[in-house]
């Protein structure tokens, strides 16, 4: 299920969640994440949140981790490219735009 451990969540179909919204919210407030599915496919995860600041902090931490992973992967890719004699690395995004990673990029 794409990285979600279903044992850690209470799972509901969209129909069940609509019919028992108060119970779903009660479970979330009790600290149990609620997974909402459609035909068995995860659609949403409801979590207890204390404040907007907590959400912003979580997002900032995730961005930092992603940036560090990208930097580490790019460093490894540059090393491999150098071994293979590749002079320039270019990434094509899904929107068709290309991003060139020259050696000065940090």
Largest sheet, order of strands side by side?
Answer: 1-2-3
Strand content: 15-25%
Report the average pLDDT across residues: 82
| Model regions low in confidence, pLDDT < 50 over at least 5 residues | none
Shape: elongated
Number of strands: 5
Biggest sheet layout: 3 strands, mixed
* Helix coverage percent: 40-55%
Structural class by helix and strand composition: alpha+beta
Which series of helices and strands comes N to C? EHHEEHEE
Please tally the helical runs, counting DSSP H or I stretches of 4 or more residues.
3
Note the gap between the termini: 35 Å
Please render the helix and strand layout as text.
Blueprint: E1 10-13, H1 14-19, H2 21-29, E2 34-38, E3 41-46, H3 52-84, E4 89-92, E5 98-101
Parallel strand pairs: 1-2
Antiparallel strand pairs: 2-3, 4-5
């Amino acid at each position: 299920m794409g990285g979600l451990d279903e044992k850690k969540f209470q799972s509901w179909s969209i129909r069940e969640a609509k019919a028992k919204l108060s119970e779903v919210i009660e479970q979330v407030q009790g600290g149990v994440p609620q997974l909402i599915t459609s035909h068995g496919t995860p659609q949403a995860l409801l979590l207890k949140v204390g404040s907007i600041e907590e959400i912003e902090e979580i997002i900032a931490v995730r961005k930092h981790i992603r940036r560090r992973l990208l930097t580490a992967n790019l460093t490894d890719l540059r090393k491999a490219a150098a071994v293979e004699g590749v002079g320039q690395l270019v990434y094509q995004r899904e929107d068709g735009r290309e991003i060139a990673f020259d050696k000065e990029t940090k």
